[in-house]
């Protein structure tokens, strides 16, 4: 079979996710194997049979305290008014915690309750009861008793009980082997030199790590080329070696998406396409009795699909329940739109602002891995919903602990490299606190404070009328809010251009005359407002500026775009130009200030943040970036 003979299948099913999963679990007959492993290596493994104790623990009557072993009957007369004397060797013997109790005795009196009269005599003033302070044989584990049932995932404490009960090795379920086949001509291994069009193969490592975490044994294979014969060979080999197979990418409708055809040639496809966004082009099938899951290439879709379909198989093989995540009820800070007929999985940020948990959607793009890194949880919007309104209460599955979420500082506003430095120093000061920053621009940052979605924002907004920065905007947009403005940085803005400034750009006139492509910022960004006011002062309008319509969301993404293309220019901070090894022509000095809610200003985190931005370490690190002057001895403006 060659690639050209393969027909393109351009329609996918819309099967409900739960039906697809139930069908898969029901069709596939997993053949479990058992192996014996040393108890000391068995952490995280699942018992394949009930495990019985080989020994009793303790296996002799043991003293539970330091003191003397006595016959309880000999002590009944002892009383405060009638102290009783006991003779060493005859009436008692000294014992320490854990010592065997000599046969003739049946109780232990603690050393604290004894009065030593001489080397041979002690006095007691209270009787002992039979078996007091003695750990009888089998107090912990009795020989022959079941220590653990079948299907139990072993924890550190379980290993202790097993070893105490004389179990040195035990039968566990063999870890299900999961073959991972990354496919795609464009893939290269991490670390290899990248040509345009190359994609670093990282999904495989993520899958392997998930499989490991769920108790399976990942077998991460080499990259398989986009060629049906190669894919077919790789799947056959995997079906021979592994219990389950994951094949990544090529699941959709592209000209090189062969996965569906190859699986249906080698075995059977149960599902191609589920009613979810993202994750739709999943393939579920069977080859030579082994389940095979074709997961979409986009990382977010892939990780979700793995959790929906592989994890149940791995758990079912081991005979354990699928773990469930904690959930939290939160209020939506923004509207979440959704498609009828499909479940939407929306990655969410959650913040604890002004005494309540507020959640906001992160990007919906399935190729943005950082959204999974940043997400605090995931919101599932059902197939019958057209979306959820701002302010609605919803339940979110958590990726992080509620405690961590509560302690996170939400920084929403204009991006500045100094925020990353604050982040690092904050972690160093208190490992439990962190900054969750989202770069939305200055105006959107002020709005986030107003809507109670953020604790802190960073802004640099020039008021063209007064020629001053920031305060006029705070007064206009946050007039009714209790906020504190912290004068923070003076920073240099300038033209970011290719090395050597090939178009010799110094002014807007040069940009227009040389026909350079301008890399713009999003509406509401301080840099955009600065550019627009420069534009107004020149005799040009936005129509004269090529590229004006396209928007970037940070200084660094502007610089990254210019790095790619010689004829581009953007406005941004010096440090971004320096990071990307580009040239920089200064245009203006601006004030980048911090605005925070009064309640955050008064909080422990707020005080910590203020201390950090006044520290010598912080000031030194920021000024080293170049183009910055940190304001010293801050006077907050209320
Ligand atoms: N005409 C249509 N086009 C697409 C559809 C559709 O229904 N009709 N579905 C879209 C959806 S939704 C998804 S998801 C993707 C799935 O694409 P494939 O599974 O065919 O994957 P590729 O196109 O080969 O790769 C897509 C993308 O994924 C990343 N990738 C792939 N492999 C890896 C890897 N091993 N490590 C890291 N990243 C990987 C990479 O960015 C690829 O560009 O199709 C849409 N198109
Ligand atoms: O599965 Mo695709 O992920 O909807 O982007």
TrEMBL record:
It comes from the Bacteria. Pfam families: MoCF_biosynth, MoeA_C, MoeA_N, PBP_like. Residues 179-316 form the MoaB/Mog domain. InterPro entries: MoaB/Mog-like_dom_sf, MoaB/Mog_dom, MoCF_biosynth_CS, MoeA-like, MoeA_C_domain_IV, MoeA_C_domain_IV_sf, MoeA_linker/N, MoeA_linker/N_sf. Pathway: Cofactor biosynthesis; molybdopterin biosynthesis. Gene3D superfamilies: MoaB/Mog-like domain, MoeA, C-terminal, domain IV, Molybdopterin biosynthesis moea protein, domain 2, Molybdopterin biosynthesis moea protein, domain 3. This is Molybdopterin molybdenumtransferase.
């Amino acid at each position: 079979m060659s690639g050209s003979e393969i027909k393109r299948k351009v329609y996918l099913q819309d099967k409900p996710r739960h039906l697809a999963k139930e069908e898969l679990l029901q069709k596939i007959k997993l053949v479990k194997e058992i192996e014996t492993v040393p108890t000391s290596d068995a952490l995280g493994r699942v018992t394949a049979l009930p495990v019985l104790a080989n020994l009793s623990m303790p296996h002799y009557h043991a003293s539970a305290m330091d003191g003397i072993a006595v016959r309880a009957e000999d002590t009944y007369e002892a009383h405060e008014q009638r102290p009783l004397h006991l003779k060493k060797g005859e009436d008692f013997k000294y014992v320490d915690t854990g010592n065997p109790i000599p046969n003739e005795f049946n109780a232990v009196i603690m050393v604290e309750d004894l009065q030593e009269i001489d080397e041979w005599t002690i006095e007691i003033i209270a009787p002992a009861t039979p078996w007091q302070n003695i750990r009888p044989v089998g107090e912990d584990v009795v020989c022959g008793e079941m220590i653990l049932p079948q299907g139990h995932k072993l924890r550190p404490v379980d290993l202790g009980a097993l070893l105490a009960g004389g179990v040195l090795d035990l039968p566990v379920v063999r870890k299900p082997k999961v073959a991972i086949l990354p496919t795609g001509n464009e893939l290269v291994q991490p670390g290899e030199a990248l040509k345009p069009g190359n994609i670093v193969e990282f999904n495989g490592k993520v899958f392997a790590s998930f499989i490991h975490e769920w108790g399976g044994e990942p077998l991460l294979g080499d990259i398989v080329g986009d060629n049906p014969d190669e894919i077919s060979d790789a799947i056959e080999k995997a079906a021979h070696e592994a219990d389950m197979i994951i094949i990544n990418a090529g699941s959709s409708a592209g000209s090189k998406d062969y996965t569906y055809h190859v699986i249906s040639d080698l075995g059977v496809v149960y599902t191609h396409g589920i009613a979810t966004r993202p994750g739709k082009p999943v393939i579920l099938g069977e080859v030579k009795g082994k389940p095979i899951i074709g997961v979409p290439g986009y990382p977010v879709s892939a990780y979700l699909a793995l959790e929906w379909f592989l994890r149940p198989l791995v758990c079912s093989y081991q005979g354990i329940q699928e773990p469930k995540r904690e959930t939290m009820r939160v209020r939506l800070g923004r509207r979440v739109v959704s498609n009828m007929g499909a479940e939407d999985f929306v990655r969410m940020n959650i913040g604890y602002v002004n005494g309540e948990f507020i959640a906001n959607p992160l990007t919906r793009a399935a190729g943005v891995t950082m959204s999974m890194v940043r997400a605090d949880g995931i919101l599932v919007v059902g197939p019958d919903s057209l979306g959820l309104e701002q302010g609605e209460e919803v339940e979110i599955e958590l990726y992080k602990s509620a405690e961590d979420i509560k302690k996170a500082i939400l920084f929403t506003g204009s991006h500045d490299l100094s925020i990353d430095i604050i982040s690092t120093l904050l972690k160093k000061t208190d490992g439990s606190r962190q900054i969750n920053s989202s770069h939305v621009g200055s105006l959107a940052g002020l709005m986030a404070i107003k809507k109670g979605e953020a604790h802190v924002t960073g802004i640099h907004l020039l008021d063209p009328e007064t020629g001053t920065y920031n305060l006029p905007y705070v007064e206009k947009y946050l007039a009714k809010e209790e906020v504190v403005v912290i004068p923070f940085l003076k920073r240099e803005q300038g033209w970011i251009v290719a090395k050597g400034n090939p178009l010799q750009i110094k002014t807007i006139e040069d940009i227009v005359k040389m026909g350079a492509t301008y890399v713009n910022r999003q509406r509401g960004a301080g840099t955009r407002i600065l550019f627009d006011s420069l534009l107004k002062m020149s005799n040009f309008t936005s129509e004269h500026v090529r590229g004006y319509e396209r928007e970037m969301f940070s200084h660094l993404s502007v610089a990254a775009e210019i790095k790619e293309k010689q004829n581009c220019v953007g406005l941004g901070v010096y440090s971004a130009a320096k990071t990307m090894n580009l040239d920089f022509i200064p245009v203006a000095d601006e004030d980048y200030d911090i605005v925070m809610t009064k309640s955050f200003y008064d909080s422990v985190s707020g005080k910590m943040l203020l201390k950090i931005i006044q520290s010598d370490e912080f000031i030194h690190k920021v000024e080293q970036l170049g183009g910055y002057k940190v304001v010293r001895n801050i006077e907050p403006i209320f």
